[in-house]
What does this fold into?
Amino acid sequence: MSPDNVQVPEWAWYYIAVYFFVAGTSAGAYFIGAMEELFSSAKEREVSRAACYVAFPLLLLVPIPLIADLGRPGRFWHLFIYNQGGYPYLNLQSPMSVGSWVLLVFGGCTLLSFLDNLVADRVISFPLFSRYYNRIPRKLYALVGSLAGFFIAGYTGVLLNVTARPFWAATSPLMGALFLVSGASTGAAAISLYLIWRQRNAGEEVARLESFDRALMISELLLIAVLLVLAGHTAQLLVTLPFLVMFWLGAVALGIAAPLWFKYRSRRQHFGGAPHLAHYLCILAGGLLLRISLLQAGQL
Amino acid sequence: MAKGMFIDTTICTGCKSCQVACKQWNGLAAEPAHFGKRSGVPYPVADNFTGDSYDNTGSLSATDWRHVRFIEQIDEQRREKRWLFSSDSCKHCSDAGCLNACPTKAIVRTDLGNVVVQQETCIGCKFCIPSCPYGVISFSEETGTVHKCTLCNDRIHNGLGTACAKACPTGSIRFGEVPDLRRRADARLAQLKGKGEKAQIYGYEEADGLKVFYLFTDRPGVYGQPEQPVVPQRRLVLCSLVTILTALGIGVAALVNFRERLNGKEEHHES
Ligand code: SF4
Ligand code: SF4
It folds into this structure.
């Protein structure tokens, strides 16, 4: 009879880990775009434009897995309104509650930025909107949105840390930090992939994004190392079979270490070739495998 | 006015009356995981023989809100032996991890201090499940919501005690006001210590005080209870701070990398 009898939530990885990944990537892309928006001249906008085009469509996917994993999907609105009182409900102690509200705010900001860019690129001309959209200063929702984005990328890790499951509890307080850095890195990869797809060679801008991403990936490796030290024997599962492939080979080796090495080696190479494309895909797959591993290592 | 229960495990005989009374009063079905289909047999067949002493309940679940544990202790020479029993349930923590975690206000504390799940409000997000340090609250596939002991919410709000305490033939489970129960527990502890027995109360400090607390004659771990339970939300502030600092770090990294551009812009303006 083990005293470690804290029960498993049995969150389905194909819903919840995928949600962690998609929301983290969307939020990471958005705050990178917003940083450029806030810190840059008006001329160089390739990265922030790509970020807006990536963040919103990704975020549209998010409600599907979140609601599908509920025991009573039809009641999802109880997250916002207390059904017995009819008033809005927010529980500051519960990352799940705060996270749901911030998702709404973040969704609003990504939608505004998305429309904003569509109008600026003359893809749509929505007369009413064109007349009014400039009244909400772009920098304002870039600021609000990037704060919300930081929250969305990080809170899912905090959510795991504030449970009593041994692995999630032992890795406190680093899971939020790791998810945040990973979200930024997959967000940067998503932006780059978008630029390749649209055949935008943003030159200097991409070079800066790349050097930013190198710093992120180095800190990601460091965070994983410290996190595993903290976890100690609760991380035993990570050295058993599915995790050896999924976590060590997939998330760490192919998802972070190899792309990082490639980034250093190919600094002078032409942007957008097949190897470039492949290494961004590796970063994205690695980010997904990282979430699945850390979710399942606390659940199995 | 806080109500609670004191479980004196030293006088429990393992009769499971409490489990039966709980099931009957609360109208709880048999645990679905304990029954299987056998070909040619028209009714579900029980397959919950755990082989663990007289225990065939295994653990608390959405339909088993009480669970009597059987602990057989035999020394190496097989001369000394001891059989311990302990009836487990929700502890109705004063700082309840499950309640803190719930995003929908489905879990509430009543005026009598007990923690209950409002079935009409729960959305089945399952966040409360890993947030209970005692592994109590459980999900039901059937209702899509979580269930646990309510401290017989309906009974105690109508002047009755809990069904399990009522049924307990030895007085091992006592229902009452928490301060009264603590006095009783302290007296019993002093009596046992006077006889030279190793005994301890479990639940005075844990989670700001468990409303359902225990008298054990061995380590809590032996009875399947965590030795050092932590209300998980107490880590929230530190986790948030570290995450915010990381966000600041990322912001600085972005600034450093975009600084060239800012400089470039300034030069552009100067020229
Ligand atoms: S024992 Fe678990 S289910 Fe019961 S009140 Fe405490 S945290 Fe909630
Ligand atoms: S499963 Fe129900 S009771 Fe538990 S946290 Fe979610 S909404 Fe609250």
